[in-house]
Amino acid sequence: LSYDIGECRLGFKPVSWAACTRKNSRLLRVKLKNGQTLRLTADHKVYTDKGWIEAQHLTKTHRILAIHR
Question: How many of the other CB atoms lie within 10 Å of CB of 55?
């Protein structure tokens, strides 16, 4: 899931660019109800039921929206 700035909307599209932006950054671990764990930096944004939230500001009241396969 990504945000298309040109179209001003969310969409499911292939990743067109990715890079390592920081080396040796501390990672947060976010455990999901289904048992999976996300590992991400504190400023990494996650799409939730309340919009985009930096990982450091997530609480148990946020619902992370994801693709279920």
Answer: 19
Q: What is the pTM of this model?
A: 0.64
Q: What is the pLDDT of residues 25-49, one digit of tens each?
A: 889 999 988 898 999 999 888 889 9
Asked if 11 and 27 touch (Cβ cutoff 8 Å), the reply is no
Q: Residue 53 and residue 55: Cα distance in Å, rounded? A: 6
Query: In the numeric block, which tokens belong to residue 58?
Result: 């997530």
The rounded distance, in Å, linking the Cα atoms of 67 and 69 is 6
The tokens for 59 are 């609480």
Distance (Å) of CA 36 to CA 9, 29, 33, 48, 57: 27, 10, 7, 16, 19
Alpha carbons 27 and 38: distance in angstroms, whole number: 9
